[in-house]
Model the fold of this input.
Amino acid sequence: MQQQKINISPAIIWISSLFLGILSSVPQLASHEFNWREAVVNSAITAAFSIIMWYLNIYLFNRNAGKRKQDISYSRLLMILAFGMVIMFGLAWIQQLILSHINFGPVMLMVEVRGILINLVCYMFLTLLQNNYAGQQVQLELEKVKSDNLGAQYELLKQQVNPHFLFNSLNTLKSMAETNDSETVDFIIKLSDFYRFTLESRKLDLITVQEEMKIIEAYLFLQKARFGDGISFTNGLKPGDLKTLIPPFTMQLLVENCIKHNIVSQSKPLHIKIYSSEDKIIIENPIQRKITTEESLGVGLDNIKMRFSHLLEQEIEIHSDEKIFQIKLPLIHEYYHH
Done:
């Protein structure tokens, strides 16, 4: 990871330097023996030193921008302080040439201390700024990795199709063909439609609820060919609900889960209801637990939770009172994509 170079606005450099120059003359302004010429020269020397040290520090920081180390470099700090003392000595000598009546020794000591303080402020400010840049870059890279990882996970989620369903469907088709069932052709068409929906929906993050209901209708037709009157279905969605959006195969996976985890038989039919309430789509079924459950491939609630979390940053609601099992999905009225 290359460290971003520091870029400070020239306006900030010059304004802050002028401010420091004026600030350095405040003690003289409070003095009874104020000399405007000394104050102007003192301010100019301080401002000039500050500008030089700003650019020198920025140059040295950017020269080492490729290094990953973010801690304070004491060798670089000592080098900058040494440079600063030499530069301030030169500026103090210029000040002595302009104001020859001033005692050079005490003035020299005062300006050197001032120069060290200004140098330290510039260095520490740029160090903090550099570390902030580096931290932001690391955060951006982590977010990118996280986003790429979530994207890859989501693509896998969209591509999950239960092979048991295909196996059972083909077995049902075989039985229908052997008995010359009149609905064999319809079964093949619905099976074809279902897998066409599967392939088309993989490309999309969200589809309308109306399109999702077509997937459910095709799926339930295939299941009724297998279970007969062992499955009943009620669609209580309103026309407005059908125009809302949903991650593809969300409700189909939930209906599949109902069949997978509950008894489905002529003597004990499984009734599945889909309706809306309080801005949520509700998938509901009576709890008729199987003694032995089918092997799960992880396609179901975890899949749906991750898809809603990835796309919408919303959670689904699950309610069970040992008699009725409900899952509530938030209605999506507009397209979201994170």
